[in-house]
């Protein structure tokens, strides 16, 4: 298979690089790889909410490891997005308690409203719909997470309101 | 010994093992996936669950994974307990939910561990009726197919590839129900042991791609025990044939030699046997047509040779029997070893070192248990690949002491690796260029052969003052020598590895001195020396004159005709010398399997059987004589070289050869003629060996199509071909039980169709085969306290103006004569090149890829430059044996020829 090379060199901002160096400094010089998870998170935040193969290669370069070693970590964790995502990533809890409180209806509603399935982006590219396992807010289900923020006790009406607000942002 | 109770029956078992190993050793069937005898336990698949009970009164018990539970005295377990059985049945059902229903078209079918375990666990009906998870497969190169849908996530592939074999480009991706084992992108799997994945994988995710070209089910193969011909280690293999072509090579367990694995050259290099360039008919060049029958050829030979003054040239890749037959035919005084002059000296020296001791020549298994290793002048991955794999295991020895201290059994693989992290035991490598083992080495030095030898001598001197002093060492060399000497001295089982690859006697002598010096202190010190070819050591033991003296004999008119045995002289002597030799000889007779430059010059060419069409014995680098067996009957004209030589001897009324009829006659004569070969008769049972009056079948009892496959010749079943040389038959009839270890054509046991059936043939799991491993050691070092030291320490290497010192480099795929003819191996071989360091390239105004012209032994050679900064300044690496690189005796000085002017340097004309 042909390997495509990107024209644009992946470049972290100075602030991100400083943060990366700080994490690397936590570990012995020959164990740089230990910093892989926080650096992938930084990379994801830095490059539009997902880690492309090129970004992963860059992380490998920074950590002095083979790209395959980054791929195995990045593909393992569901919190790393391997495909481009929308501006807002909706992570809906689908674990038991939320399901009992109607998470399944909420997901159906989101799918029809956004016109996409779970794991896909909405047509306008604003939203990505994901389902995740328990976020430890079982008392307030159904709920979802957008970045670090929780939205709880949701129903279709509240959901619509939230999406409208987010669209305007 | 510990007593364990399995289903209330007491058994005596060895402590220290796990319950799964104990059960399998006792012959009790217990299914497993993630456990592998060479790789230990991780307790991941949950397939080997058994019930363990507190005491006799306990009827409830608890489920445990037998691979994770050590043998304890008086432990009570049950394999047949209903709950345990049900548990195992459920586990296999879960593992099978995503497994496709494609056994009928799967290459693994019929030799599949997953099939066997499914049947064994009693999961007979599939209840899962939903969509199965599917994957995209990858292109993995010429050796392996990839079919991820079949994966059951046992993780054995990555554990073998990364943890055991040190590979970097196979990994596991993603999680949960979509775990993926593969490369980060399509591409060739780089590790030299990748082919073992086909055997390590319990199902058909990784399968042999060369087999797919001419696919045959395991049960339809005619198989024979064989010995790999592609390096000097003599790994045991099983070779399988159908419809007259060789289909597959698999590893054949030998507890002392290769264990469970073989390298990719050994596994995939077999296709030269099926090459269209094979010589299948006797050829007499002066005849029209050239191809003649056996009778005509022998008639012709009788006519020409009965009056001739004959010499013979043997071969390090031909069997002991063929070489001995030739020696007997032409007479001791007229037998020449067909090897490079330098190689002959080196192999003779190796033999002398191994014989005189006091260090013991280690087998591959012993290498794995060495706790400090020093490699001198060898790039093991490319010269003796399985030895490199064994060294990879040896560096775990010292860190494992820590594991033992923590009371963790060694087979607790995940725990042991977690505790050890990436700590490695002492491994030192002094080599001509960087080697793949460097990554696990404590310290490495890349230097010229003389500098390697000097380092070695320095180490020897530091261990024992009886070994000569080395003067004028650099500070770095002194520090390294001290470091190596300290590590070797404190080790319990130190090992020195060297060999003929660097082309330097001094390197071998240095290695011998270190081993000798160690033996003054550590009695268990060992030595391993590699030699160039599969039977180099056997040929050296047999003994003969130099190749050069053969040339002289013809030139001086002492002899007029020559028989060349399985040898392309252009690979072991200078072209002009060989041209003149073959030109002067009145009659040139060549016996070989493939056409090459030497057969082109022969007037008579006889078709010799390859390892697949011949029986014979090889002596590996350890001095172990091992028998290989003909896999399938061949057309009458194609036969073993020794049989041709007997035919020739008979037609010439030779007093000795006329009395020989089969392989045993030759071996008997060899054992009688030469005391060092006395043991050879014990290497394998004689042809008249029978069990219950029966021979051992090469075909499985499920072999199909025995009449149908010949129906285009005759519809009635032909008489089965006879095998007068061995206790094996070419058919499916014969004794179905377990034969002696050296004549096991394939491993099979009821319910165990995959290669895992080897469990049933071992004394204990991972140990020796029943009644001892195949082969017999012909060389045992003299037990002495007195070490004789070599005293000639070479001068350090000094570059020479306008010259480059050419040193040999090796490639696992490319350097060996026969395997390179297999298309897959050829695809992996590099293009011809000459390697020089950046500084030399700069001085010569050369860039990577530019041509370098040089004169070597009166030949002018032009090769593209490869920059390699591990090559010492003033030396250059020449890939030995690679097609496109002419033969030259190495190491040797080459004269750099002046560069042609290129357009850039042409004077500009200013008008």
Provide a descriptive summary of the structure in words:
The complex is a heterodimer of chains A (169) and B (911). Chain A has 169 residues and is an alpha+beta fold. Chain A contains 7 helices and 4 strands, in the order ααααβααβββα. Chain A has 2 domains: 14-76, Arc Repressor Mutant, subunit A, CATH 1.10.10; 88-168, Glutaredoxin. Chain A starts with 13 loop residues before the first helix and ends with a helix. Residues 1-7 of chain A have low confidence and may be disordered. Chain B is an alpha/beta fold. Among the domains of chain B are: 2-95, Ubiquitin-like (UB roll) (Roll), CATH 3.10.20; 282-342 and 538-732, 3-Layer(aba) Sandwich (Rossmann fold); 359-531, Dimethylsulfoxide Reductase, domain 2, CATH 3.40.228; 803-896, Barwin-like endoglucanases (Beta Barrel). Chain B is 26% helix and 17% strand. The radius of gyration of chain B is 29 Å and the shape is globular. The mean pLDDT of chain B is 94. Chains A and B meet through α4 of A and β7 of B. Chain B: Pfam families: Fer2_4, Fer4_Nqo3, Molybdop_Fe4S4, Molybdopterin, NADH-G_4Fe-4S_3. Chain B: Belongs to the complex I 75 kDa subunit family. Chain B: One of its GO terms (cellular component) is membrane.
């Amino acid at each position: 298979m042909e390997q495509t090379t990107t024209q644009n060199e992946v470049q972290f901002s100075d602030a991100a690089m400083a943060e990366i160096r700080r994490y690397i400094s936590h570990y012995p010089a020959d164990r740089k790889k230990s910093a892989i998870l926080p650096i992938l998170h930084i990379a994801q935040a830095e490059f539009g909410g997902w880690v492309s193969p090129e970004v992963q290669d860059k992380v490998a370069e920074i950590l002095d490891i083979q790209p395959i070693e980054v791929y195995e970590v990045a593909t393992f964790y569901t919190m790393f997005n391997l495909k481009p995502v929308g501006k807002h990533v909706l992570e809906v809890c689908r674990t038991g308690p939320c399901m009992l409180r109607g998470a399944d209806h909420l997901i159906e509603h989101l799918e029809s409203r956004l016109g996409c399935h779970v794991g896909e982006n909405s047509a306008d590219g604003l939203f990505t719909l994901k389902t995740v396992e328990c976020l430890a807010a079982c008392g307030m289900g159904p709920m979802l997470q957008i970045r670090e923020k929780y939205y709880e006790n949701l129903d279709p009406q509240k959901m619509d309101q939230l999406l409208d607000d987010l669209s305007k942002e | 010994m510990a007593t364990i109770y399995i289903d209330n029956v007491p058994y005596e078992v060895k402590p220290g093992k796990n319950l799964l190993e104990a059960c399998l050793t006792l012959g009790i069937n217990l299914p497993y996936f993630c456990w592998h005898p060479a790789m230990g336990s991780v307790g991941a698949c949950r397939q080997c669950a058994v019930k363990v009970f507190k005491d006799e009164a306990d009827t409830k018990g608890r489920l445990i994974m037998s691979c994770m539970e050590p043998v304890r005295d008086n432990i009570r377990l049950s394999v047949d307990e209903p709950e345990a059985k049900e548990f195992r049945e459920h586990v296999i059902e879960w593992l099978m939910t995503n497994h496709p229903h494609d056994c009928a078209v799967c290459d693994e079918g019929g030799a599949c561990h997953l099939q066997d375990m499914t049947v064994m666990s009693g999961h007979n009906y599939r209840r899962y009726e939903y969509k199965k998870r599917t994957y995209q497969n990858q292109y993995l190169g010429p050796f392996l197919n990839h079919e991820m849908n079949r994966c059951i996530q046992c993780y054995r592939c990555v554990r073998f590839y990364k943890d055991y074999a040190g590979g970097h480009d196979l990994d596991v991706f993603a999680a949960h129900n979509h775990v993926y084992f593969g490369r980060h992108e399509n591409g060739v799997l780089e590790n030299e042991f990748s082919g073992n994945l086909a055997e390590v994988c319990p199902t058909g995710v990784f399968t042999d791609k060369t087999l797919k070209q001419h696919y045959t089910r395991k049960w339809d193969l005619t198989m024979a025990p064989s010995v790999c011909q592609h390096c000097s280690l003599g790994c045991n293999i099983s070779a399988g044939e159908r419809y007259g072509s060789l289909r597959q090579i698999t590893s054949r367990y030998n507890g002392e030699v290769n264990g469970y694995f073989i390298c990719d050259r050994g596994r995939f290099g077999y296709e030269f046997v099926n090459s269209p360039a094979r010589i299948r008919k006797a050829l007499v060049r002066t005849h029209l047509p050239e191809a003649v029958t056996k009778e005509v050829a022998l008639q012709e030979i009788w006519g020409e040779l009965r009056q001739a003054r004959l010499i013979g040239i043997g071969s390090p890749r031909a069997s002991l029997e063929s070489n001995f037959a030739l020696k007997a035919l032409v007479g001791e005084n007229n037998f020449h070893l067909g090897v490079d002059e330098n190689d002959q000296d080196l192999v003779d020296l190796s033999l002398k070192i191994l014989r005189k001791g006091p260090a013991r020549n280690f087998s591959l298994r012993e290498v794995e248990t060495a706790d400090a290793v020093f490699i001198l002048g060898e790039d093991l991955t490319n010269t003796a690949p399985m030895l490199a794999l064994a060294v990879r295991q040896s560096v775990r020895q010292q860190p494992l002491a820590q594991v033992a201290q923590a009371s963790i059994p060694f087979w607790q693989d995940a725990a042991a690796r977690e505790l050890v992290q990436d700590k490695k035991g002492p491994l030192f490598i002094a080599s001509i260029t960087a080697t793949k083992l460097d990554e696990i080495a404590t310290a490495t030095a890349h230097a010229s052969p003389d500098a390697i030898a000097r380092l070695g001598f320095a180490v020897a001197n530091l261990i024992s003052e009886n070994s000569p002093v080395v003067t004028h060492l650099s500070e770095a060399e002194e520090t390294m020598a001290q470091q190596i000497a300290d590590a070797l001295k404190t080790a319990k089982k130190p090992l020195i590895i060297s060999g003929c690859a660097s082309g330097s006697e001094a390197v071998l002598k240095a290695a011998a001195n270190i081993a000798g010096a160690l033996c003054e202190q550590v009695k268990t010190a060992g030595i391993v020396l590699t030699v160039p070819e599969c039977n180099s050591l056997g040929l050296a033991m047999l003994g003969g004159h130099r190749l050069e003296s053969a040339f002289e004999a013809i030139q001086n008119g002492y002899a007029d005709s020559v028989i060349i045995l399985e040898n392309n002289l252009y690979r072991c002597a200078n072209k002009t010398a060989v041209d003149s030799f073959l030109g002067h000889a009145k009659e040139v007779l060549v016996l070989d399997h493939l056409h090459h430059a030497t057969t082109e010059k022969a007037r008579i060419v006889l078709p010799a059987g390859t390892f697949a069409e011949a029986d014979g014995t090889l002596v590996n680098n350890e001095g172990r004589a091992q028998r290989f067996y003909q896999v399938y009957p061949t057309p009458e004209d194609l036969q073993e070289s020794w049989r041709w030589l007997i035919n020739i001897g008979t037609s010439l009324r030779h007093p000795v050869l006329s009395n020989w009829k089969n392989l045993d006659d030759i071996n008997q004569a060899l054992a009688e003629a030469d005391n060092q070969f006395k043991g050879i008769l014990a290497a394998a049972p004689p042809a008249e060996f029978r069990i219950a009056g029966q021979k051992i079948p090469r075909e499985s009892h499920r072999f199909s199509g025995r009449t149908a496959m010949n129906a285009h010749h005759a519809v009635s079943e032909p008489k089965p071909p006879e095998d007068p040389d061995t206790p094996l038959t070419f058919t499916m009839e014969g004794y179905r039980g377990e034969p002696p270890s050296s004549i096991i054509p394939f491993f099979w046991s009821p319910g165990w169709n995959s290669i895992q059936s080897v469990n049933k043939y071992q004394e204990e799991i991972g140990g020796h085969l029943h009644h001892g491993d195949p082969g017999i050691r012909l060389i045992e070092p003299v037990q002495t306290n007195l070490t004789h030291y070599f005293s000639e320490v070479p001068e350090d290497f000094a570059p020479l103006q306008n010259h480059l010192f050419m040193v040999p480099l090796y490639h696992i795929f490319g350097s060996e004569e026969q395997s390179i003819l297999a298309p897959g191996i050829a695809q992996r071989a590099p293009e011809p090149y000459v390697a020089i360091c950046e500084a030399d390239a700069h001085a010569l105004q050369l860039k990577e890829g530019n041509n370098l012209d040089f004169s070597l032994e009166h030949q002018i050679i032009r090769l593209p430059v490869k920059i390699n900064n591990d090559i010492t300044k003033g030396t250059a690496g020449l890939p030995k044996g690679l097609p496109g690189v002419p033969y030259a005796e190495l190491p040797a000085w080459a004269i750099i020829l002046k560069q042609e002017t290129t357009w850039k340097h042409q004077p500009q004309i200013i008008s």
